[in-house]
Design brief:
By secondary structure, this protein is α/β, with parallel strands linked by helices. The protein has 11 helices and 7 strands. It binds ligand PTJ.
Length: 245
């Protein structure tokens, strides 16, 4: 292990990499997850490695949507579990959302390791593990199609941070509201979701939990969701990347 000097200009980014590599060594993250993170990092560099005003607007709308939902579910994959387990549990508690593990590169061993990691951070009743994922998302070929009947299958809102496009489109077709975190505003997930937070998951997840605490009990939730325009927000993220704003 190398030690990262605290005054290193890229210290935060290096610590995030370490958390992911550590997650890989502990069997939470797949090798492909390291590649996916590299793509995310490139976009993060372009947006200035900060939570932009545009992302803040999406975070507020996402918190409001989760609080308005009857049965919200947070879908957790290996990268999310390695990078922000505490914030995921915090968000679930703040919004009454269930937590379901749903992996692209699915193995039961990894599902169990991720469940244990979330439980260490206070999660209760983690859905989607092993035979619990007995329902199927129609028209989806990947392993992500198998979901928990008490979780994603019956959810009205599904939060899918770091997702692949196929399942986002399939969930929207099922009539569900979909929220995502994706640093790439051009991805199919970013375009198909109802609310896309273009930000690094390590910043966005704690900010989302905080926004949910702040908005809990607010009378403006519906107004916040109705006033949010995802297409416009994505256009603004692209402008930030191009240096236009
Ligand atoms: O744990 P599994 O088996 O479910 O696999 C998880 C990964 C992430 C490997 C899998 O879902 C995958 O291959 O994802 P993709 O299709 O590469 O998409 C990941 C998206 O997340 C890309 O658009 C990346 O730009 C984005 N991304 C990567 N790291 C971050 C990120 N967005 C926000 N924060 C990040 N740290």
């Amino acid at each position: 292990r190398i030690s990262i000097p605290p005054n290193h200009p890229r210290a935060k980014s290096l610590h995030t990499r370490e958390a992911l590599v550590d997650g890989y060594r502990r069997g939470l993250v797949v090798a492909e997850g390291l590649i996916a993170h590299g793509r995310g990092e490139a976009y993060d560099y372009l947006i200035g490695e900060c939570t932009t005003k545009t992302a803040q607007r999406a975070i507020k709308a996402a918190a409001a949507m989760l609080l308005l939902s009857r049965h919200p579910v947070i879908s957790v994959n290996g990268n999310a579990a390695a990078l922000c387990p505490g914030a995921i549990v915090e968000l679930a508690k703040a919004t009454g959302a269930a937590i379901e593990i749903n992996l692209f590169y699915r193995t039961e061993e990894r599902e169990r390791a991720i469940k244990a990691e979330l439980e260490t951070h206070g999660a209760e009743n983690v859905l989607g593990v092993g035979s619990r994922a007995s329902a199927t998302i129609p028209e989806l070929q990947s392993e992500r199609r198998r979901v928990d009947p008490d979780g994603i299958y019956s959810a009205d809102t599904v939060f899918v941070p770091l997702e692949d496009g196929d399942r986002t489109e399939a969930l929207v077709k099922m009539g569900k509201k979909v929220i995502t975190i994706d640093l790439n505003p051009l991805s199919r997930t970013a375009k198909a979701a109802h609310i896309t937070i273009v930000d690094n998951i390590v910043r966005a997840m704690p900010a989302l939990a905080e926004a949910a605490h702040q908005l809990n009990g607010s009378k403006s939730l519906k107004r916040i969701v109705d006033g949010f325009d995802n297409k416009k927000n994505l256009r603004e993220s692209l402008k930030i990347i191009r240096g236009v704003i």
